[in-house]
Fold:
Amino acid sequence: GFTDHFALGNEEWNPWDEEEKNELAAQQRYEANLKTIKYARSHLEQTSLRVQIWGKAAIGLYLWQHIFGGHLEPADVTAQWREGRQRAGKTYFSFLTGPSVVPGYFSVEAEHVVLVLNGREPAKVAYATQWLHYAQTLMETRKIQHVAVVLLGNEQCNNAWIQPYLKRSGGFVNLLFVTYDCAFVNEEDIFQWPLGVATYRNFPVVEPSWSMLHDPRSYLCNFLGTVYKNSSRETLINILKQDGLDKLCWIAAREQWQPQETNASFKNYQDALLQSDLTLCPVGINTECYRIYEACSYGSLPIIEDVMTPGDCGNSSVYHSAPLQLLKTMGAPFIFIKNWKELPAILEKEKKMSLQEKIQRRKKLLEWYRNFKAWMRQKFINTLENSFLPSDKG
Structure:
């Protein structure tokens, strides 16, 4: 209350003489606040959006479970049909996923739909377009009003196939959230979306624990992954071997990519993240990889090879800091390097760091990652509400 009085420039004000007046003012303020809340509540109920999310790509689980912190019933990941519900902002979200969610065989319970699709390769695109055509039919028959798409994009950013479906090109899709540094992101109706963790390998939502923050870790760094011939990953392994640094790091290289982890190999990978202070993230087909987000989940700082990969990603005026525009814009506290020759010096510095310094760094990383997810959630909700809700022309 003090600031209210000082703001009036009333230097004579004596808080003791005015006690009764203050009580009255406080009472009035309280009643006014109560009115505001009541009005906001009724207004909220009037303008409530109902949004149904159809999760037809694994990236939908990152959206729902990791970014939204939502739950799914049944909990069994192999279930044919899973659903969840959550209220956020002015919006009531329901989420459906699983092999049984097929066009025409489930009830469309909202006028606003978010379609989560996989556009990584031609076969996936063919499947995704079936869903788009289904949504288009629902639009034409007035069953739904708005459609947004969350798209797992192609790793070379060849996403031109989706453009004719966008409203700006005469289509019906209001908003697009797409992974990787896709050149047609404009922050108006097309937004960059994080790749997230490999939910298709059932990477879990990790709750930070006391020991994850405070325990000493056995390894300076880790890299578990496929080493392609003549790639920078090969260079990385050679540099580690030259200086004997591979003895201080958890390195498990394989020559061929395996889409499905065994339980043992997955446990191994999680242990490596938990037992290393740093996680090495060499480029694959795209600079952005699941490993970055998975390392954040366990408080292991990503060292990222910050180079553009071949393809159509980042070729636009927006992407002056590509690759990883989204993470950089959000101030990710990672170590970015242009060449793995910089690694030995980083590891030398790492050896001299005290546990206390490492604990502070882990706290900062975990805090940043939590805020990043919260920010993405808020941005997603605000974008939908601004686009889908009738604007109040007061």
Q: What stands out?
A: DSSP finds eleven helices and twelve strands in the chain. Confidence is low (pLDDT under 50) at residues 1-17. The chain has two domains: 47-179, 204-371. Residues 355-388 form the longest helix (34 residues).
